[in-house]
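R.M. (postdoc): so does anyone remember the format we settled on? I'll just put the structure tokens first.
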């Protein structure tokens, strides 16, 4: 069976192209070796299950590993301690005695007692469950490590909190009473912050039963080198002639190493772009143009990750406002872990802490969010959006985007719609209006993002990708000739990074004697197209 890229479920190195995670496993093993109890909480589709499966195999030499998944325990089995204890014990014994992959080194007599109690003892409780688990650990041939995946499915009920309390109680007395050497809980939510109910009629308050958990600081993102290593393995199989380092850097720049996005883009290049119009084979697909085509496809598709992203914007108004300000205002927002909406967005992987400030987690999310905000009913009903939509085909000539014409028409439509009656506005509104105009023109065929190097300054460079061509447009408010000339020089210098000879500027000028229009300026060997509205 030929290997393929996988973006659904756990990865298997025999079946799938994978980033090497051996370094990650070694770091986690250090925590296990120290006897730590900890939580691996990362966003959905962030490689947790793949990591846990690999970790189970990695630890087997020195430990007995009991790896469970709480999705396999039904919601109805958390109804009370008796039902849960019986279900947990039965699941554990079944896992240990699995005929295809049995777990050796555990006392058969204790397993028999555990199985019998679960099936016949109507008074079987959490306390009794842990008595048997303690005995199982005591008589085991090697230290026992407990791994539980998908703990999110159990976090909103009292039985799970009581289960954590038992783990905590045995942890605190493990010098006297045998128990698990290390416990790993995995899920999206940070179990460490789940609060115990003091009384039934109270909300969750202080004294988390999982406050024993060690900090988990292992980086679960893919690095550029890791992505390059995966592409090298693929290249040995397919001989496409790809520029591995260039593509690895592109994939990382757009995804920030988010595992699902990395795998999904590679899968799209391999299976959807290759063989499509303009990309007749894998050699043509594994290029910069093929990568950009895959980015276009992923931004147009529906998947559970993007659906979760949008649903959180609907559920948390404060989060929606934060994201909007970051996207359109370039606002530099200080990271505050006590701000609920931000903390939740960080947990779900949509935002990140970047040197003490809040930022969108990666460029793919950013582009998807721009598309979301610019295609709402309110946005599409705006006059500037409608003006661009009326004859958008005029901007595409022989399959290529004429950015100079886009700016000329924007100046004309902006003056026609708003004219001298336009009230003075800030950079945020200026960017929003231009992006509203640009969006229907490149819809479905191109993408754009805000270059991080300029996001927090008064200028903001938009990078537009259209059928392999790139355009850099600087948007700003007019603040005098001196400021404008400095902006031109900055843009000209910045074009070197993209190896481009032409750049674009759009200035909003609120002076009464302004001269609107588009003109060309040369700075050295670079051409700048400047539009003033």
């Amino acid at each position: 069976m030929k290997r393929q890229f996988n973006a659904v479920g756990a990865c298997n190195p025999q079946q799938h192209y994978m980033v090497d995670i051996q370094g990650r496993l070694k770091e986690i093993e250090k925590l296990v070796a120290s006897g730590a109890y900890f939580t691996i909480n990362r966003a959905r589709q962030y490689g947790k299950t793949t990591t846990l499966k690999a970790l189970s195999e990695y630890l087997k030499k020195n430990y007995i590993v009991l790896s469970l998944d709480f999705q396999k325990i039904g919601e109805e089995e958390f109804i009370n301690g008796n039902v849960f204890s019986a279900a947990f014990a039965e699941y554990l014994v079944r896992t240990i005695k699995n005929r295809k992959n049995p777990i050796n080194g555990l006392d058969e007599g204790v397993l028999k007692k555990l199985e019998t109690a679960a099936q016949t003892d109507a008074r079987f409780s959490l306390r009794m469950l842990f008595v048997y688990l303690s005995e199982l650990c005591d008589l085991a041939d090697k230290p026992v490590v407990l791994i539980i995946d998908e703990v999110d499915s159990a976090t909103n009920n009292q039985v799970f909190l009581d289960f954590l309390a038992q783990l905590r109680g045995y942890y605190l007395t493990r010098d006297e009473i045998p128990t698990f050497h290390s416990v790993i809980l995995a899920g999206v939510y940070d179990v460490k912050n789940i609060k115990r109910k003091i009384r039934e009629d109270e909300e969750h308050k202080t004294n988390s039963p999982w406050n024993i958990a060690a900090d988990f600081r292992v980086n679960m993102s893919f690095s550029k080198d890791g992505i390059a290593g995966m592409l090298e393995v693929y290249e040995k199989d397919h001989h496409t002639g790809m520029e591995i380092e260039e593509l690895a850097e592109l994939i990382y720049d757009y995804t920030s190493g988010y595992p699902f996005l990395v795998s999904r883009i590679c899968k799209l290049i391999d299976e959807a772009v290759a063989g499509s119009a303009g990309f007749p084979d894998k050699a043509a697909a594994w290029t910069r143009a093929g990568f950009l085509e895959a980015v276009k496809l992923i931004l147009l598709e529906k998947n559970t990750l993007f659906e979760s992203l949008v649903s959180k914007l609907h559920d948390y108004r404060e989060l929606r406002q934060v994201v909007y300000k970051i996207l359109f205002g370039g606002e530099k927002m200080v990271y505050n872990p006590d701000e609920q909406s931000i903390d939740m967005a960080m947990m779900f992987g949509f935002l990140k802490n970047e040197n003490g400030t809040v930022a969108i987690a990666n460029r793919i999310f950013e582009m998807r969010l721009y598309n979301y905000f610019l295609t709402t009913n309110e946005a599409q009903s705006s006059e500037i959006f409608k003006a661009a939509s009326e004859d958008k085909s005029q901007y595409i000539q022989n399959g290529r985007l004429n950015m100079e014409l886009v700016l000329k028409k924007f100046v004309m439509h902006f003056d026609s719609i708003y004219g001298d009656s336009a009230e003075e506005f800030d950079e945020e509104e200026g960017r929003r209006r231009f992006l509203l105009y640009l969006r229907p023109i490149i819809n479905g065929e191109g993408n754009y993002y805000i270059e991080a190097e300029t996001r927090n300054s008064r200028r903001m460079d938009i990078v537009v990708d259209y059928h392999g061509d790139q355009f850099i447009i600087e948007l700003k408010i007019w603040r005098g000739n001196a400021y404008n000339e400095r902006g031109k020089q900055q843009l000209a210098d910045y074009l070197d990074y993209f190896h481009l000879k032409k750049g674009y500027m759009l200035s909003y000028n609120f002076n009464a004697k302004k001269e609107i229009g588009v003109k060309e300026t040369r700075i050295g060997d670079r051409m700048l197209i400047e539009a003033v509205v």
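R.M.: ...and that's the designed sequence above, right after the tokens. Also worth knowing: The chain has a mean pLDDT of 88. Residues 304-364 form one domain.
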